[in-house]
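The material for today's practical consists of a large collection of protein records. Read left to right, the backbone structure tokens trace the chain's path through space. An example says more than a description, so a record of this kind follows:
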Amino acid sequence: MRYSALEIVKQGFSGNRGWKPLWRDPAPKSAYDIIIIGGGGHGLATAYYLAKNHGVRNIAVLEKGYIGGGNVGRNTTIVRADYGQKGNSPFYSHSLKLWEGLSVELNYNVMFSPRGLLELCHSDGQIESYSRRANMILARGDDAEMLDRDAVRAYAPYLNFHAERFPIRGGLLQRRAGTARHDAVAWGYARGADALGVDIIQNCEVTGIDIEAGVVRGVQTSRGAIKAGKVGICVAGRSSQLAAMAGMRLPIESHVLQAFVTEGLKPFINTVINFGVGHFYISQSDKGGLVFGGDLDGYNSYAQRGNLGRMEHVAEAGMSMIPALGKTRMLRSWGGIMDMSMDGSPIIDKTHIEKLYFNGGWCYGGFKAIPASGSAYAQLIATGDLPAYAGAYRLNRFETGHLINEEGTGAQPGHH
């Protein structure tokens, strides 16, 4: 069914008894043309674009748990296109354009809110660095503005302009950036894929990958064996574990990244703020809670929880930037399992096993990349070729040395 204002009124008069489930709950078939392992944002988007753009309908998305239970529902929901590296810049630019029309595309409100992103500068070096990045962003056709101290104060007066240790010198503003609703994105793509005939199979853990003579033949699952013509791995922090089932060792480490939300407050943060020195980022949700995060917890883990030391570090960074945060009460915290690549940038590519494909290594960029990642991965699986905007994300760049090192911290996943 299509959603509309008229439908809301109609259902209201009928006691809201006419709404249908967003997607079916089918039993797995014995075989599919394509299996996507992972029912997160990237996996669901891939299935949707495979069906919509390439006409493939005999697809199964296999999810170990429930839709929205992984990283797609465990992030700070920031959407931006402020990357400077040649490999990343066109990709995230394309993704932001897809975000802007996604609610209409899916006929489902993903609550994309272009409230802007302000990245603070605290030194002359940062001013120079962000000015260079702003010029790169403008050169590719996206928006960017450099603000001086007074302009930052006018834009975000609640910031700490009296800090001597981290003085605010200016900032880089991208007005088209913003936030979206994480679970709405997952549900919207799931609903769209299901409407096109895709089977979304929850509580179906993949326990093995069947390979014969160098060609993938299907998967073993907790609900039985399923044959497939092609298989796509798309499981974020579990990438190394799934790849190991196919005998692959990836240039990826799994780290925990915590996020936090406070009690609901009256609106006072009207944008997304990134505190450059402390790697702290914050926005205010539509329900009033302050949503924020910081650095990785600093150790390899598959646990969806963090440690108190990192929680204290993030709180200190927040207090340095917005002292008024000290009066708020933290409601909850959670952890996502981040698939940190060796250069801090993602991988979308074929593997050495025929008909087996890989999508992962998203580091901090996974949520904002969902639309472009799904579109690019779908094209790769359907045609064997990546679109130009994702052409740099080949797996062999780690052999050839063509790394996409956005932060300049080298081959150290824990630092990206």
